[in-house]
Amino acid sequence: MYEMLKGMRIIEVSAFIAAPYAGLSLGQMGAEVIRIDPIGGGLDYRRWPVTGDNKSLYWAGLNKGKKSIALNVRSDEGRDIAHALMTAPGSDNGFVLTNLPPRGWLEYGVLKEKRDDLIMVSIVGNRDGSVALDYTVNAAAGFPFLTGPVEYDKPVNHVMPVWDVVAALSAVQGLMAADRRRRETGEGGLVQLALSDTAFATLSHLGYVAEAEINGENRPKTGNHVFGTYGQDFETADGRRVMITAFTARHWQVLVEATNTAEEMRKIEKKLGLDLRLEENRYAARKPITDIFRDWFKRYDFATVSSKLGEAGACWGPYQSVSEAVAGGSKAFN
Q1: Which domains does the chain have, with CATH numbers?
Q2: What is the pTM of this model?
């Protein structure tokens, strides 16, 4: 917990991931986050995973550190309490964060009448207001056809709700930018963010759209290879799996040194006429490179592989279950 936003109060009206994650992020920077839920719990109050007595671990994880108030907003009294919280005076008040439909008691215009400089961040599914969730957005963006084994020609969904997370962090940025403008000009405003826009913007920023429009190509499915550079998973002698990457010339150098494969790599360079210090050439030669590395990894158990890669400063990580990550940790979690 940091105190960079200490004193700021955010009123959150939310469900599921995007807005709760945004509120969590603001709270972890020191803001006071008050979540308004209906009496008896919101839409996500019992969402899996749950404990043996049916308490939601999911809900607890996304709402830790927040304050909570349960209101019947169908009643005049409930709406009055909610609006009083949302439109309280002061420069650190007047912030509303939601991913529920912004209508009725939650409509921006209604709240603006009570505080003219109110800042409201509203996360919607699609820009036109129609419903969309992370999993439908991901399907529409094309990523499932890039995911999974190369030989499998059907779409593969991801398990990480990445667009909810991206939208959440974009909502935080939008709120902070609106706060700065209000402090400079006295103007509030409605910041509306579409979940689908975050996915399609990312699709553009990372070159997928340009590939389709300029090159007339779809990004190929590459399995566990990393497109355009070198990265691959390998099995060790004792059945563990690791992921290695070599995005830079330095990454490549230390990986080759750690695996003692310099001579084999020179032979590949000579045969194919490629300089493997360049990442695009490592990608082009990924199959023979992988064959050489695969033999090396099969000779050593995980402990030895871990020691050799770690001592060389290679960029790598172990594959492990969530339980293993929690119990034993890794470089990424330490």
Answers
A1: 9-203 (3.40.50.10540), 230-328 (3.30.1540.10)
A2: 0.93
